[in-house]
Predict the structure.
Amino acid sequence: KYLQANDLTQECRDIISSLPKEEGWVSNHLHLYHGCWITPRYMPGVLAFQKHFQARDTDIILATTPKAGTTWLKAILFSLLNRVSYPDLQKHPLLTSNPHVLVPFLEIDLYIENQVPDLTSFVSPRLFSTHLSYNSLPTSAKVSNCKIVYLCRNPKDTFVSLWHFTNKLRLKGTNSLEEAFDKFCRGVSLYGPYWDHVLSFWKESIENPQKVLFLKYEKMKEQPTYELRKVAEFLGCPFTPGEEAKGVVNDILRLCSFDNLSTLEVNKSGKLSSGEANEAFFRRGEVGDYTNYLTPEMAEKLDRITEEKFRETQLKF
Ligand code: A3P
């Protein structure tokens, strides 16, 4: 159900034309808006989201860098928060709906050109997602008591995963790995610079640990049960002794596992309303796949940049 916001298009056009622009490897062009590289297709949604979103204290926002494992964590958060409503895993919505349908992106799926969605009818706790950096979030998301779960991934695998994803979305040909790598290193990538994105949420998670939970893909892979319990506690819905005894933690992880989700018919053949094939969100789902694509020199270069950018922090990948 949509309400109209007629003032958007011209404002948006004016803003886009005033922004620094780079040829994209993710889309034809990327524009630098408030320190974040955005594709023009998403700009109306970003502006409308920033202008109109009213957070509730009970909202939960999943924030991620693209290719950090968003699809996975959407599935996990949806299952976690709705575990009482869907006790029968044979009839779970994830078996027939892609996680991106169950947990929509605010600036991509909900706030779209010329339209402001009526989110008041959503039942609390509302679960949304975004790729925007912390600094670019609407004020109400920052000042309210809504909770933010942030997920990132080591930059080498993030880059390789994004490179594959963009190749899948292109109609013809493959992006040059070297050119894309050069742009990524200069910060020019979807919602990049990657390091600024990670740092924005990292800082907030240190200053305000009740508000932002900072997660890493690699840790989720290494210690999934530990991380899932941590998420449940952070969101104020820890697993009860009864649930622990019944094995609910492992049930959720099994349901949301790469092997399970990627082999479901809906994810093998379905499409999102934005046009992307569901299967594009499932590739290998492993840590360290960058070694199959980056030369040792490229890997070292990214490591050097990361070390430099994260020098003042305890962040390590
Ligand atoms: P790879 O390209 O390295 O395989 P996003 O969801 O943010 O777009 O990230 C996509 C990445 O997460 C892809 O990584 C994809 O394979 C991986 N992924 C998708 N579903 C997953 C799951 N259930 N468990 C682990 N990784 C998953």
Summary: Strands lie at 2-4, 21-23, 29-33, 36-38, 60-64, 115-117, 127-130, 147-152, 212-216.
